[in-house]
Specification:
By secondary structure, this protein is α+β, with helices and mostly antiparallel strands. The protein has helices spanning 7-23, 40-50, 71-83, 91-104, 107-118, 233-245, 252-267, 280-308, 315-339, 357-364, 375-386, and strands spanning 124-127, 143-147, 150-157, 168-174, 185-191, 197-203, 209-221, 226-227. It binds flavin-adenine dinucleotide.
């Protein structure tokens, strides 16, 4: 097994790192965790800096505005962005919607939608979940009814990340209520400025404005909004989910936080003439995190190497998602306990250590075990498809 990258790949890493150093503010600390979105206006500006280098969607084919970058180059790019805590905006469009349009879109749809993503002008949100349809997504109730050449959409979506500033949404809606639930769903692309759409922010328990409720009241969209075949939207939507769950290179932000926590433990006094690092429980907890950090990285490399060989990772991505989620959550718990009484302080302030990052991330990362398919659903996938256990 060859674990090192080639000299060309290392040169690319250096190029990305120096770009990030040049284009991020000198004192840039980034968002507090993968779920905290930070300042989305700054995120949009940053996208415009990536665009001229074609680094918004570098893995997309050249004809669609990408660089046709190899998966390993993409890993290097994502790792550098994660470590720098660079704003990662429009993930849904770049990571999952764009590749879905490339597969299922008409030529007109490709021409209409892909350039806006690679230029950084159009931000997308994902309209899948509904108040009563999350894990059992195919039970969704939002309706789209044909009216002449148009479609009229009524219903509600929930937990819509970026819905408060997205320009467009990709949405699934029921188009045949009499068909079995998976077979009566279609996939639509719609402009968020269309009359009849209203967005209500949901503040998460970390006090962040990340996701929203979105209501559709007789929203009229043209026939060109339909992506792929009528009533085949479920199968297109699951392709989008496959792209979502195999997202790569996401643990570098956590590595940087772990480095900061380790440095802190090595230098912070325990008040009795020693450092926190001198306490065996602190060293053991950190060592455990370092080991898990390496394992999550290797598991994500396993998913990449499968994709590179043309295999479709399935339960392997689920293993990766569970382990990464639990690792990041454990990192917050360890961070808070190492900081002691200061661990509960939230945000920047004279007494907050390490920018109060851990207290906030502790609550914010609860959602990562839910977003993109809950831990229980991932366990079901591992049980049935990985271990071959019977379905309940
Ligand atoms: C931070 C965040 C961002 C999100 N962003 C988006 C977005 O942009 N767009 C979007 O459409 N959605 C988004 N979601 C929604 C997310 O996809 C759903 O929350 C998720 O699929 C779970 O659905 P639910 O909330 O309805 O919970 P439910 O499906 O009702 O689940 C409730 C509980 O029951 C368990 N459960 C359900 N079914 C089973 C089963 N078969 N076996 C075992 N246990 C089960 C679940 O694991 C969970 O613990 C986001 C969620 C979060 C937290």
């Amino acid at each position: 097994m060859q674990f090192s990258f080639t000299p060309e790949q290392e040169a690319f890493r250096t190029e990305v790192n120096s770009f990030l150093k040049q284009h991020l503010p000198a004192n840039w600390e980034g968002a507090d965790n993968a779920i905290d979105e930070g300042d989305h206006e700054f995120g949009r500006e940053f996208l415009k800096k990536l665009a001229p280098k074609k680094w918004i969607a570098p893995a997309w084919p050249v004809e669609y505005g990408g660089l046709g970058m190899s998966l390993w180059d993409q890993v290097i790019f994502n790792e550098a962005m994660g470590y720098a805590r660079a704003p990662i905006v429009n993930t849904a469009a770049v990571g999952y919607l764009g590749p879905t349009i490339i597969l299922y879109g008409s030529d007109e749809q490709k021409k209409q939608h892909l350039p806006g993503i690679t230029s950084g002008d159009v931000i997308w949100c994902q309209g899948y979940s509904e108040p009563n349809s999350g894990s059992d997504l195919a039970s969704l109730q939002t309706r789209a009814v044909k009216d002449g050449d148009d479609w009229i959409i009524n219903g509600q979506k929930i937990w819509t990340s970026q819905g408060h500033y997205a320009d467009w949404m990709f949405l699934i809606a029921r188009t045949d209520p009499d068909a079995p639930k998976h077979r009566g769903i279609s996939y639509f692309l719609l402009d968020m400025k269309t009359p009849g759409i209203s967005v209500r922010p949901l503040i998460n328990m970390a006090d962040g404005e990340g996701f929203n409720e979105v209501f559709f009241d007789n929203v009229r969209v043209p026939s060109s909004a339909l992506l792929g075949e009528l009533n085949r939207g479920w199968y297109i939507a699951t392709t989008t989910l496959d792209f979502e769950r195999s997202a790569i290179g996401g643990t570098m932000q956590a590595l940087r936080t772990l480095e900061e926590l380790t440095r802190f433990a090595k230098t912070e006094s325990d008040g009795r003439g020693k450092t926190l690092w001198d306490k065996p429980p602190v060293r053991h907890a950190l060592a455990d995190l370092w080991i898990t950090s390496d394992i999550t990285k290797l598991l994500s490399y396993r998913v990449v190497s499968m994709q590179e060989r043309g295999l479709v990772p399935n339960y392997e991505s689920s293993i990766n998602k569970i382990l990464t989620t639990e690792y990041v959550q454990r990192q917050q718990r360890v961070g808070i306990s190492i900081l002691g009484m200061y661990g509960g302080l939230w945000g920047e302030g004279p007494c907050a250590k390490l920018r109060g990052r851990f207290a906030k991330a502790y609550v914010a990362t609860v959602g990562s075990a839910i977003a993109g398919g809950t831990t229980e659903i991932q366990k079901n996938i591992i049980a049935t498809r990985g271990l071959g256990l019977p379905r309940q």
